[in-house]
Target: Large ribosomal subunit protein uL4
Amino acid sequence: MNVPVLSKDGKDTGRVATLADGVFGIEPNQHVVYLDVKHYLAAQRQGTHKAKQRAEIARSTKKIVRQKGSGGARHGSTKSPTFVGGGRVFGPVPRDYDFKLNKKIKVLARKSVLSSRVAENNLSVIENFTFEAPKTKSYLSFLKALSLSGTKTLFILGDYDSNVYLSARNIPKTKVMSVDEVSTYDLINADKVLISEGALSKIESILN
Model:
């Protein structure tokens, strides 16, 4: 599968990039995409929630009413969950939400999203470039040239480039990442995926 290579000015360079069918042309598997996104979001949770149970409440343990003869229910102490300010029954405790997911599932999920982006015509290949200095205006001009101003974009670089990364850092709905950092969530969360020529071969080697 061939796609045109665009310059940073949004113009066709006259060259084409060949996309591997095994990475960019498979039948998307939506279930593995769901599993990988769920795995990513679960790993982001801190899991530090905590509610005190009755054994952890700082209150008197004195029996508040006698056992019999009061005409009401039996009560021990005000730590009981039946009283306002008492302990909570089966309350949340700190836990890790992460779960195991096979590497092959993660790879298939990323292939599925990339293939979907190609099928939707929402993936473009950009020639390798850099900026002379980190300037937000430079990256805004780059997005404007591609008619992507205000669009949620993900730009994947072959290697970390501080000038490009810092230029895009303050722009809403814009993310610049190297190949090693990209997850399925990042791919599916962007409306338009841009891949540099240098990143293309690395993506294919990692996912193949």
The helical segments are 21-24, 30-44, 103-119, 136-145, 162-168, 184-189, 197-207. The chain has a mean pLDDT of 93. The first strand starts at residue 2 and ends at 6.
